Amino acid sequence: MPSRGWSNSLDLYGGRGAFIWAHIYTGTMDKFVIRGGNPLQGSIKISGAKNSALPCMAAAILTEDEVILENVPQVRDIETERKLLESMGAEVELGYGRAQHRTSIRCAVLSDPVAKYEIVKTMRASSLVLGPLIARTGMARVAMPGGCAIGGRPIDLHIKGLEAMGATILQEHGYLEARANRLKGAHIVFDKITVTGTEDLLMAAALADGESLFENCAREPEVVDLAALLRAMGARIEGAGTSTIHVRGVARLHGARHRINPDRIEAGTYLIAGAITGGDLHVEGCNPGHLGAVMGKLEQCGVKLDVSKESVRVRAGDRLSASDITTEEYPGFPTDMQAQFMALATQANGTSLVTENIFENRFMHVGELNRMGANITVQGRTATVRGGARLQSAAVMCSDLRASAALVLAALVADGESILDRVYHIDRGYEHLEEKLRGAGAQIRRMGEVFARR
Ligand code: EPZ
């Protein structure tokens, strides 16, 4: 994980050396070395959901009181959000290593309500501060996130909704300049289902003057998690988790303590790790209720699942059968599990069709999987995965968070030792991935780029 200290050996290498040390110290040049062939056994504990923690951290902007979040995962995106909030004047203490990973955020003074491009460009979810900043301070200057590996990632629906609530938003020099005396409640029907769009407007409406009715909302568990925190802070919200959310704005919100939900995508990833390696693995501390579509699909493929209240035991069945998936908004099959399922499908008997409906460029893992011996072709939004591939170890490149997870899964079954480069993508959203996999019997280690002295 990125340490906070800069090396005092910058002079050793001069400018280039500083760049190298910066990368070593921040882990941005780390690689994973994975030797395939070990069935995963034992148990893996699931961490808090990154995609819940990010909006919940942004929600702390809505009050000058302290907000305490438990179970925040120690991942790079959380570190990025800490930097973003501190750059605006917040006091943030990430609670790694403390009991319950207790994180404290206090936005008593927001001296500089600006989300700078240097930070926003590394994490699109930075746009989650837009609504809270306008609601709390009446102004916001947020860098446009720009696209990322998986797509254009526009935020036009966030902007449209906030303008409907009375904000004036100009776009200039790559920044959104937003102003509002006080946001007013509004009736908004989202043109498209957007997770962070729903979350952004929910936070804005909590402090708006009057009532808001939002339709065609995202129903993801992360929206429900955020609404639970907002209600604990005094917000008046009904319907989170359904397509229609009703908010009655209040004048002020107070501090609260909230425990972040377990990460359903991390849990789904490790279920597939247990299945693809032919293991017998307990995925502990998850919420099976958030995994309906994923578990249903795995069982269709012949994977054996034993479901308890907070854990799922996964075992490979006698035969792994091909099956088709189409990604949809929750509760459909999640786009964040598409790459991981594709890795599993390379091992199935038969051909699987994988259709990606949410993002326009979320097949970055296909080329690298094929370099490992998979047989996948892409036509538009659908990938055809011919199963039964004997995957071979290779040097591969991580490109985005979930594509990288797919490469880890493939390397766990490939014969020989694979090298995964740019694992900082994985560090963005998987807490201690190599320790968790090693604890279940995988042969995986992290290799920092160590440069011999000149
Ligand atoms: C959230 O991204 C998640 N990120 C993503 O997880 C996840 O893949 C995605 O939801 C879909 O489930 C966080 O919660 C931090 P969207 P978000 O707005 O909110 C279009 C991961 O791997 N759209 O629901 O950015 C958009 O282009 C990440 O953890 C607009 O057109 O996704 C996409 O096609 C990756 N205009 C679709 O909607 C907008 O204003 C869904 O995007 C907003 C979105």
Written description of the protein model:
The chain is of the alpha/beta class. It folds into two domains: about 5-45 and about 260-445, UDP-n-acetylglucosamine1-carboxyvinyl-transferase, Chain, CATH 3.65.10.10; about 50-260, UDP-n-acetylglucosamine1-carboxyvinyl-transferase, Chain (Alpha-beta prism), CATH 3.65.10. Helices cover about 30% and strands about 20% of the residues. It has helices at about 10-25, 50-60, 75-85, 115-120, 130-135, 155-165, 195-205, 220-230, 265-275, 290-300, 340-345, 365-370, 400-415, 425, 435-440, and strands spanning about 30-35, 40-45, 65-70, 90-95, 105, 115, 140-145, 170, 175-180, 185-190, 210-215, 235-240, 245-250, 255-260, 280-285, 305, 310-315, 325, 350-355, 375-380, 380-385, 395, 415-420, 445. Strand 12 (about 235-240) and strand 13 (about 245-250) form a beta hairpin. Helix 2 runs parallel beside helix 3 (about 75-85). The chain is globular. The chain binds ligand EPZ. Ligand EPZ binds near residues 54, 157, 218 and 358.
